[in-house]
Design brief:
Layout lengths: L4 E2 L14 E6 L6 E5 L6 E5 L5 E4 L10 E3 L6 E6 L19 E2 L25 E3 L6 E3 L2 E5 L5 E10 L2 E8 L6 E6 L8 E5 L4 E3 L10 E11 L2 E10 L4 E5 L14 E2 L12 E4 L4 E4 L4 E5 L5 E9 L6 E10 L11 E6 L6 E8 L4 E7 L4 E7 L3 E8 L6 E8 L4 E8 L1
Antiparallel strand pairs: 1-20, 2-25, 3-4, 3-17, 5-6, 5-15, 7-8, 7-11, 9-10, 10-12, 11-12, 12-13, 13-14, 15-16, 17-18, 19-23, 21-22, 23-24, 24-25, 26-27, 27-30, 28-29, 28-31, 31-32
Length: 416
């Protein structure tokens, strides 16, 4: 469910801090590359999109995250075959209902990949496997079918996630060419994902550092409704980055970011629908009177206006950007607000994204009896992220609270 975060009066006093800049980010012809882009300096890291099939959550996505995504933008498809891994050797697709069992990545959250996009059988069903309260591991209990971008079909079981190591096995549908492999989260420190190519039977280190980029120009699959999944080319936000979309703007040059509704939970607010294809002209048309404001994890806010799109001929995204707000000491007396907490429930690490309006902020965790079980002093303002170790806390319900001299913000968390 989309959560809107209202940036209130703390933003009103900010002044325009940079001139409007014209930018072009190119995925190249045929949308061959993913482009990780940093708003502050325009730095762009371009990486080939076709060298992976599966993406496994690494540390920056959450120490306990079990997310696994597919390369849907390149044509990788995923289906749930059944919930009985004993049928691995006897898999038979005769009369299999392909349309009813197709799974896709969420385009709203990095933490819901195709393998998690199922109807959970219990609170501990994490999609491809079930979390054990006894061993604190995830054990695989489902068989999946994959169609790779090269047209090959594979059957797959993600066997387990134990101590930060994903173990999995795959083979041709008839059992030929079996492979057992693994991917270790710690090999991809400070990155969102570690990648694997089933086509080449190898792990791949391809992401830039998580804190080095703000938005990603890429191709991904979206749900158009009614079970219709369609590949689109657009822009996704990094974890902790918040975006406000402002429609029907009378004057794009004077519209303010203050009192806009910033969303830090939906990664596709920028998305793809700021453009549409005109069959009459044979080119893309950009939506008029549409402005985006992007809040980075460092606390800055940029205004983005898309002005042109080159399509598959060159993969060019053309837009203007302008820094309209940056963190200052003057904000020290403004309110602090928790924006996002993930994963929740958590068992090892908890990531907290918050808008900090004070130089002295106290982060505390209380159990249901009101006893404080964790405390940390934070000396930052603006948009912030904190990662805390909760593995020593007993299982149960707690209250996370951020407190300043003038305000407090709280959220319920679950330790499992």
């Amino acid at each position: 469910m989309k959560t809107n975060i209202l940036f209130l009066s703390a933003l009103i006093s900010a002044n325009c801090l940079s001139a409007q800049v014209n930018e072009t980010v190119s995925m190249t012809a045929g949308y061959a590359n993913d482009n990780y882009y940093t708003l502050e300096d325009g730095n762009e890291v371009s990486i080939a999109r076709d060298n992976w099939d599966l993406a496994f959550a690494s540390n920056s996505l959450g120490g306990a995250s079990s997310t696994v995504r597919i390369n849907g933008g390149m044509g990788t498809n995923c289906w749930l075959y059944n919930n009985d891994i004993t049928q691995w050797a006897s898999l038979d697709t005769t009369n299999f209902n392909w349309s009813a069992n197709q799974l896709v990545n969420s385009d709203a959250s990095w933490t819901t990949g195709a393998f998690e996009n199922t109807t959970p059988a219990s609170a501990f069903d994490l999609g491809w496997g079930t979390y054990s309260l006894v061993t604190h591991t995830v054990e695989g209990d489902k068989i999946f079918i994959l169609k790779l971008a090269n047209g090959a079909y594979k059957k797959l079981i993600i066997n387990s996630l134990i101590s930060g190591v994903f173990s999995f096995q795959y083979a041709d549908l008839n059992g030929a060419n079996p492979v057992t492999s693994s991917l270790t989260k710690s090999d991809y420190l400070d990155k969102n994902f570690g990648y694997y190519s089933l086509q080449n039977d190898q792990t791949i280190d391809r992401d830039p550092l998580s804190d080095s980029w703000d938005i990603l120009f890429t191709k991904y699959v979206t749900d158009l409704g009614g079970g219709t999944y369609y590949p689109v080319t657009g822009v996704l936000a990094n974890r902790g980055v918040s975006v406000a979309q402002v429609n029907n703007v009378g004057n794009v040059n004077t519209v303010s970011y203050s009192n806009q509704s910033f969303d830090s939970t939906n990664i596709s607010v920028l998305g793809y629908d700021w453009k549409s294809y005109s069959f009459g002209s044979g080119s893309y048309v950009i939506t008029d009177s549409l402005v985006y404001f992007v809040g980075t994890t460092s606390g800055d806010v940029f205004k983005i206006i898309f002005t042109a799109f080159g399509g598959s001929a060159n993969g060019d995204f053309i837009f203007t950007k302008e820094k309209v707000y940056t963190v200052s000491v003057a904000e020290a007396k403004e309110k602090t607000k928790i924006l996002d907490v993930y994963p929740n429930p958590a068992s090892e690490n908890l990531n907290i994204t918050f808008a900090g309006g004070a130089e002295q902020t106290l982060l505390s965790i209380y159990d249901v009896s009101g006893k404080e079980v964790f405390q940390k002093q934070i000396n930052n303002i603006g948009l912030n992220q904190e990662n805390i170790d909760v593995s020593n806390l007993d299982k149960g319900i707690y209250i996370l609270m951020l407190t300043t001299e003038n305000s407090n913000s709280s959220k319920k968390i679950i330790i499992q």
